[in-house]
Amino acid sequence: MHIGFLLSLLTILLQSAGITVPTPYEHIVPRIYYPVGTLLENLRYEGNNIEMRGPKDASGNYISGEIVAARWRSAATNCKSIFVLRDSLYSQQDHPYRQTPYSLLLPPNWVASAAFLSDQNKTIILPTVFPVDDDAKWGTIQTPQDLFGSFPISESLFRRVTEKSDRLVQTTNARLTMIQLHQYAKQLALASKEGAKHVLQVGAELICKSDGNYFGYSIRRNHIIPIFVENPNAKEETEGKGTAPLHLDITPNFIFKCTKVIYKRRLEDGDIAIERYDLSNAVDCARATSLVEALVPEGEQGTTKIWIWVTGPLHAKGKLTGKDAMPWVEKFKLRLEAANVNLRRITLFSKPSVSLPSGATRSSVFNTQLRAFKDANMPMSINLSTKAIQKLIEMTK
Predict the structure, then answer these.
(1) Which of 80, 107, 273, 397 is least surrounded by Cβ atoms within 10 Å, i.e. has the fewest?
(2) Which residues are within 8 A (CB) of 380 and not within 5 positions of it... i.e. 6 or more apart?
(3) Taking Cα atoms as reference points, which of 183, 174, 173 lies closest to residue 100?
(4) What is the widest separation between alpha-carbon atoms in the chain?
């Protein structure tokens, strides 16, 4: 273990003071900002990958992935749990080229790609990789398709791996990322000899192993809730979110099967969160219901939970802006009650986050929202820091 990792972990541990909030406020979910500082032990938090990496250096790079992993681990053990986005190549804790990777996630759409090709009895072409410092060989890769083989491409990653390694730290990081992805792909290709079902099992296991290696297995189970963007919009699909790879024509039923295997395996290791479903939209409601019926049917044993991130109609521009889910929550709860779902393993999480006005009405609006979410037996997401939450609570006493 590197000395930098240990020093970073020690520094963050010393920041914790073991502070809690009174019971009536335990359903508040604030945000974690960097530097992390003191967290409230009996609250869940929303994490942010970019925020936790800290500022970029002059070359546009983040600090080592190992040090950032220490930040996440320390923060998670100093609060009840943290929601973390960990669902695709660029939406995870390790940036693919701006930092040295620590425990890279195998993207779910890579697993679906390999499973589909296996199901179609087609050859899986592995990504092309070479020793990190062999500029000449990396320079022979002509196109993104040549680099990624049978798997979803990234133009930005391709550009960096083909540059000379003595020019950019990002080149080295990108090549390390590709080498790890190659190793994952190799295991998926080997599994394909036993069929698509085995590919999915191996892929789901690799995803969970990366979670455990990154956060620590006990921390993952007790303090980390990974988020999957299961229902991505068109822009998010181009960013690699979701299970469906854009470069292959795969039926929704096959994608659903892939999603089910990956999510059920992840549930074995702890809670998961899935997003995002507009409860004013019948199609979204049906999609969410079908998925949780497949993942946590009534009568199936298990204690881990699914946190369903729900909304109202969102604005076309501006991520997670628009109406929250509250006007439609009770109707959706009735739908879940009528479905084959273990309701004890489901919690609804409304987005966008609660927004508070400044000035004299801030405290009263906070109290009104607090009661509304308490009455609905739901957590209340609010884009405030620990200090801001503490100040609000003091004002309302």
Answers:
(1) 397
(2) 27, 28, 29, 350, 354, 369, 370, 373
(3) 173
(4) 67
Per-residue DSSP letters for 3-36?
HHHHHHHHHHHHH---B---GGGTTEE-B--SS-
Contacts of 123 (CB under 8 A, 6+ apart): 117, 150
pTM of the model: 0.93
SS3 call for 280: coil
As given in the structure block, the two tokens for residue 98 are: 């701006």
Nearest to 72 by CA among 162, 157, 9, 116: 9
The Cα 217–Cα 278 span in angstroms is 33
Q: Is 86 exposed, middle or buried (0-12, 13-18, 19+ CB in 10 A)?
A: buried
Which residue ranges in the chain fall short of pLDDT 70? Answer: 1-18, 165-167, 318, 397
> What pLDDT was estimated at residue 5?
53
| Contact criterion met (CB below 8 Å) for 102 and 65 | yes
Q: 248-280, pLDDT tens digit by residue?
A: 999 999 999 999 999 999 999 999 999 999 999
pLDDT digits (tens, 9 = 90+) for 315-331: 877 678 899 999 999 99
Query: In order of start, what are the domains of the chain with their CATH numbers?
Result: 3-96+197-396 (3.20.20)
